[in-house]
């Protein structure tokens, strides 16, 4: 779920969509990253319409902009336009085998469903089967959906604000770090209020859930089919609680405690974070020096090496210049980069191990490149970036959803101490969960839906949780399941954020069977993974990269299972799956 507005432009890429938008190569390809953040197709060509009208876009996909009420309490007033992108089912729509659209949400709040479909829709299609359309939308206020939330006059002002306000800090970086974060948050709230064009108050999950129902109805369907990740689980639970009779198939994956989310607490996300970091240490020991370059005979020795690197960077940050950018590797960058790797261990643990080993030898380039992003460039064309994804919309959702936050710095300190008592990663999470940014938020009426999350839905929900998820613990899935009659929790015995963080043929077959045939796994079902984070070779990671061990893993499967596992492996080994929490 959550991203962060308090971080530098590089960290925005990391925690705005915490599975970083980077290349799957050993070092990020800046040109690829830039292409992912730009539109090859002009959304200006599509006029918003009351009916769902699809237009060819990009390469073989279809796009639409659907009109919905800006304010559902005044449905005949102004409208918003929801941008959507779909991958058409392989099965023709007039075939009896066609099963309709699945709406996929990568979370955030603030992540782009349009981008998600662009990058990974085909792999999702392989998982669920050819009978479904795969549809992603940019939620209201986000990216290509208009009106878009913006607290800044232009792109240059936004970039200057985040890059010059001391915003790449963690709460443990210095004695005044938390105070600086608090001061910046007060500025963000003030800017949001001053720059509000009157539309900001309508950007929240209640209305997004209503938009989802409009999208379902525009497809000529009565009930939703939905797969939501991380914050997308909040959207799914919200929809199910608001419209229990409109649930056809609903999977929420990487489940957030929605009550805690709407209370703006961010207080129980880190219950299993340490388990994931411990898995890195122990996995490195088990992998040995060939696959884990920072190897030592014991986990304690590796931890000591990492602690020494933290101390070294506190005393003397390292300047880095690459072919495409430059920056400073300091304590905060190292801390944030390690935290991000916990989201995607199968993609990032081998690369992180190499980067840390290089750092021990005085070379910081590898660590820098994990989070490297294209340098900001101005444009004289006002339309060129009018549909780009910015952090403002995600903050709008979060702050409009949550209860009011005290403006007191003392209360912020207390909240941090409470988090720190439960997890050593509280210093990063204080920034990553965005709670502080809502302290000075405009005082809009809090009349939107906040629960309860209790419903007898027209079809049971499927909830998916990992045994060690860094920000959405399995406990939350079990808690949320109690409120929805007949729902089942499917446990994936893995580390990482959401099921797509790890390759499990078992998990994805259960999800396919649920969508295709309405079959829920038996209560208590636990799925294992088909490989480990350090199984891929450092050169040519993953199935698509041609790693030798990945080919061995695929050797014993049927042709159908091979195709499915290749998609699952590709998602698990990719750096750039933008699932936000």
Automatic annotation (TrEMBL):
> Pfam families under this entry?
Abhydrolase_1, Abhydrolase_4
Q: Which InterPro entries match?
A: AB_hydrolase_1 (IPR000073), AB_hydrolase_fold (IPR029058), Pept_S33_TAP-like_C (IPR013595), Serine_prot/Carboxylest_S33 (IPR051601)
Keywords from the named record? Hydrolase, Signal
Coiled-coil regions listed in the entry: none
Q: Which GO terms describe its molecular function?
A: hydrolase activity
Peptidase S33 tripeptidyl aminopeptidase-like C-terminal domain: residues covered? 434-527
- Domain AB hydrolase-1, first and last residues per copy: 101-255
Leader sequence residues: 1-23
**Annotated family:** Belongs to the peptidase S33 family.
Q: What is this protein called?
A: TAP-like protein-domain-containing protein
Highest classification ranks of the organism: Eukaryota, Fungi, Dikarya, Basidiomycota, Agaricomycotina
